[in-house]
UniProtKB/TrEMBL annotation:
Gene3D superfamilies: Cytochrome P450. Belongs to the cytochrome P450 family. Pfam families: p450. This is Cytochrome P450. The keyword Ribonucleoprotein does not apply. The lineage of its organism: Bacteria, Bacillati, Actinomycetota, Actinomycetes, Streptosporangiales. InterPro entries: Cyt_P450 (IPR001128), Cyt_P450_B (IPR002397), Cyt_P450_CS (IPR017972), Cyt_P450_sf (IPR036396).
Length: 398
């Protein structure tokens, strides 16, 4: 058994300012050619599917949110409260209990019942007179926020605020943003806490068929869900379900604009949307690196990782074990690791899949000849890998 610190490992800097687009994919592929393990500024990085599955599923590891918060001096206030309460940072019985309460609201059937609402939002965003747009502004940004507002029973007019808050709160997972934008992240977190508390109060007076009413019913049962847990679960879903979905839909449209034959196939056969979503998730995960901290000494493939070691699980390399080509017709053996694996598999995965499927099935027949209308502006990969702008054009549909 060899200590990880004693290995001569290749270095991969996931905070490098030029690490985006094809540079990011190429640099990762070059690093992975040296083996399954690399050294990064604050962690180790694992670079194949087997190692990714191991660290994501191991009960000897956990998400290191509190440790990262300590590192950047986030020791108090509502941001630290949110980090400590975030379901991704929970383990054991408390984690199982919280998932059991909110999980049924995101089961496949429960997520599927929002599909007509999603189609309504897409229809409202579609302008048949257009043949070009910034796809982020036109579709990817407003659509997820409208959907989450509906799931919560919040007014549709609040969707832009929810989107802005989600973008800031999600930067708690971005080490560059924590270093540069901490006051803004803390301010957004305090604002969204106040909003959620007001929304819960309003929903208590007028319950409906939505997620908030479900959580409030669990709170009323006394020993199942505390008031603080209820507020934090709502905030988790709100923050986690908007910015990530915006990024994944924008990357999906970018990929199809770069692969016109695939878009034409989907336009001709919208029933391929589910397979297309699988391939988008596999090929361009918007959470390229998911951190895990070793709660105790961990051994894997003859390498010993000490307690406290942080490991970044690279979903991009794990997913691309099955190929470097974007092909919605290919049959893949494994499920993408974009939503994680194990006990912390993403709660909102079914809702996100439904949103993506509905968006692609709606847009493909209406945007024939989809192509880039200028260079996309891509974000960094150290947190949520987003798209800041995506100029596209298409032919008028027949």
């Amino acid at each position: 058994m060899t200590d990880a610190a004693e290995l001569d490992l290749p270095f991969f800097d996931y905070s490098a300012p030029d690490l985006t687009g094809e540079v990011y994919h190429r640099r990762l592929a070059e690093t992975a050619r040296h083996g399954w393990l690399a050294q990064a500024p604050l962690s180790y990085v694992v670079l194949d599917r087997e190692s990714a599955e191991f660290f994501l599923r191991s009960r000897a590891t956990a998400f290191p949110g509190p440790q990262i918060a300590d590192l950047f001096g986030v020791t108090g206030g509502r941001l630290r409260e949110q980090i400590d309460a975030n379901i991704v940072n929970q383990t054991g019985e408390r984690h199982r209990r919280l998932r059991s309460l909110v999980g049924p609201a995101f089961a496949p059937r429960a997520a599927g019942r929002w599909r007509p609402v999603m189609r309504g939002f897409l229809d409202g965003l579609w302008d048949p007179a257009r043949t070009s747009c910034d796809a982020v502004e036109a579709f990817a940004r407003p659509y997820p926020a409208l959907t989450i507002a509906a799931v919560f029973g919040a007014p549709a007019a609040d969707a832009p605020r929810l989107q802005a808050w989600s973008a800031w709160v999600q930067r708690q997972f971005d080490i560059r943003a924590l270093a540069a934008d901490l006051p803004a992240i803390e301010r957004a977190t305090a604002e969204v806490y106040a909003y959620v508390e007001d929304l819960l109060a309003a929903r208590r007076d007028a319950p409906g068929d939505d997620l908030l009413s479900t959580l409030l019913a669990a709170e009323d049962e006394g020993d199942r869900l505390s008031r603080a847990e209820c507020v934090n679960l709502v905030l988790n879903v709100m923050a986690g379900g908007i910015d990530t979905m915006q990024a994944q839909l924008a990357h999906a449209l970018r990929l199809f604009a770069e692969h016109p034959d695939q878009w034409a196939l989907l336009a001709a056969e919208p029933g391929r949307a589910a397979r297309a979503v699988d391939e988008v998730l596999r090929f361009e995960p918007i959470t390229p690196f998911t951190a895990r901290v070793c709660l105790e000494p961990v051994e894997f493939r003859g390498v010993a990782f000490p307690a406290g070691a942080i490991v970044a699980v690279c979903a991009e390399r794990a997913n691309r074990d099955e190929g470097e080509e974007f092909d919605i017709t290919a049959v893949r053996e494994h499920r993408p690791l974009t939503f994680g694996a194990g006990a912390h598999y993403c709660l909102g995965a079914n809702l996100a899949r439904a949103e993506l499927e509905e968006a692609l099935a709606f847009l493909a027949p209406r945007m024939p000849g989809l192509a880039l209308d200028g260079p996309p502006r891509l974000g960094g990969v150290e947190g949520i890998y987003g798209v800041e702008s995506l100029p596209v054009r298409w032919r008028p549909p027949r």
